[in-house]
Design brief:
2 copies of one chain form a homodimer. Chain A is α+β, with helices and mostly antiparallel strands and about 250 residues long. Chain A folds into 2 domains: about 5-95, Pseudouridine synthase I, catalytic domain, N-terminal subdomain (Alpha-Beta Plaits), CATH 3.30.70.580; about 105-240, Pseudouridine synthase I, catalytic domain, C-terminal subdomain (Alpha-Beta Plaits), CATH 3.30.70. In chain A, about 20% of the residues lie in helices and about 30% in strands. The first copy, chain A, contains 5 helices and 10 strands, in the order E-H-E-E-H-E-E-E-H-E-E-E-H-H-E. Chain A has helices at about 25-40, 70-80, 135-145, 195-205, 215-220; strands at about 5-10, 45, 55-65, 85-95, 105-115, 130, 150, 165-175, 180-185, 235-240. In chain A, helix 1 crosses helix 2 (about 70-80) and helix 3 (about 135-145) crosses helix 4 (about 195-205). The interface of A and B includes residues 9, 75, 84 and 177 of A.
Chain lengths: ~250, ~250
């Protein structure tokens, strides 16, 4: 049975996160309702279960259907149904064993901070406004300590019995279009991980903590050592990485 | 009596425009309520009465008060009261004869178009999504015809008895951060003028009209010749120009 991959962007402001919940609007419920109307498909899998208020520009969803579909027409139908706050950027056929969540080998997020005395109404939905001047260089130095394979228990919402070991491939703070931008990639993220790292980064930027505090908190593997969780609105799932399709680039 | 100037930014999405109206949220009503609570001032003037759904990054408002005020504290108080969708970037003392509307000698607006096959949820509030490919060079050539002093009757909402002569100092379409951006400055704008010029620009960009059509419609001085009015959400009042304060730069 053919399997398809959907690439999705959304403004998470008005949703209670990606994952379906009773009686509240979620991305999953909106997408699956639209998909069902067109294809009869009732089940999808997703690469990143973003939290309430978190955005995406490169979310990936997969589903399997009995008969082949016209990808372009499905994309257009979904966009017509989903309105301005969700966009389907692509529908493409994937290998039969493709699974948006289990096939993913990496996720990339960005977090935007607006660091100026007064907030900006046109950036309010997509960034965290911090009025106090931040030391961006110290923040970048601090966040460098999370790169590599670590137990991120200090930066993960408690979920007893679940591993909190993740491998971070890149984490940098840099200026970007008037914002301070964290760009962070990992094989996977535990719940609240990016926003907890942002919170500690800002404590470092405010010079309440030294850059080495990021390492110390990480090594403590103790959630009570965390400094907090930054607001959801600054966070966006940017992209998901998959291995090359089998055979792609092969010479036979 | 001292006169003060307020510099204001707002996300116009949820407001019925700048100007006060009964029973609907307006920027003016929100600002004046906050200002009254702090200062007792009941009357303000504004440089640009933006329409429903139009944004601002550099709106200017002025008011006069019996006794001098602490500018920084007023700015902070207004920002606390006005919440995330309105920002007061500055409160500064101005000359006694300063008037936000009548002293202004120029206004500058931008209009953003997102020209790509699928819309972008994170740009939905601040740009007009046009899926069909647009010829940006033709749009820029066309909009060049509005520069100079002209009777803009074709591009103004009908307002019998009011002059529709305006002087446009600059009008260009250029790429900017993934968008097509119109940057347009004039001594003043009549109602719907920028959005009407955008509508004709897009007809030119779609190659339904030649660039010279902008000149032909302008010269017709006839509102029925206009091609329509582009959506409000793409429009932002960027700045207002005033003459240098009397004495500024003088050598006496």
């Amino acid at each position: 049975m053919p399997t398809y991959r959907i690439e999705l962007a959304y403004d998470g402001t008005g949703f209670h996160g990606y994952a379906r919940q009773d009686n509240v609007p979620t991305i999953q419920a909106a997408l699956e309702a639209a998909l069902f109307r067109r294809t009869g498909v009732v089940e999808t899998s997703v690469a990143g279960r973003t939290d309430r208020g978190v955005h995406a520009t490169g979310q990936v969803v997969s589903f399997t259907v009995a008969d082949p579909i016209d990808e372009d027409r499905l994309r257009q139908s979904l966009n017509r149904q989903l309105g301005p706050v969700i966009a389907v950027n692509a529908v493409v056929e994937a290998g039969d064993d493709f699974h948006a969540r289990f096939s993913a080998v990496g996720r990339r997020y960005r977090y935007l901070i607006l660091n100026q005395p007064v907030h900006d109404p046109l950036a309010a939905r997509t960034s965290w406004h911090v009025a106090e001047p931040l030391d961006l260089e110290a923040m970048d130095r601090g966040v460098g300590y999370v790169v590599g394979a670590h137990d991120f228990a200090s930066f993960c919402k408690k979920a007893p019995g679940r591993s909190t070991i993740r491998e971070v491939s890149e984490a940098t703070w840099a200026p970007a279009g008037g914002f301070f931008e964290l760009s962070i990639g990992a094989n996977a993220f535990c719940h609240h991980m990016v926003r907890s790292i942002v919170s500690t980064s800002v404590e470092i930027g405010r010079r309440r903590l030294r850059p080495e505090a990021m390492r110390d908190i990480l090594e403590a593997r103790d959630r009570t050592r965390a400094t907090g969780t930054a607001p959801a609105r600054g966070l966006t799932l940017v992209s998901v990485d998959y291995p090359p399709a089998p055979g792609a680039g092969d010479v036979t």
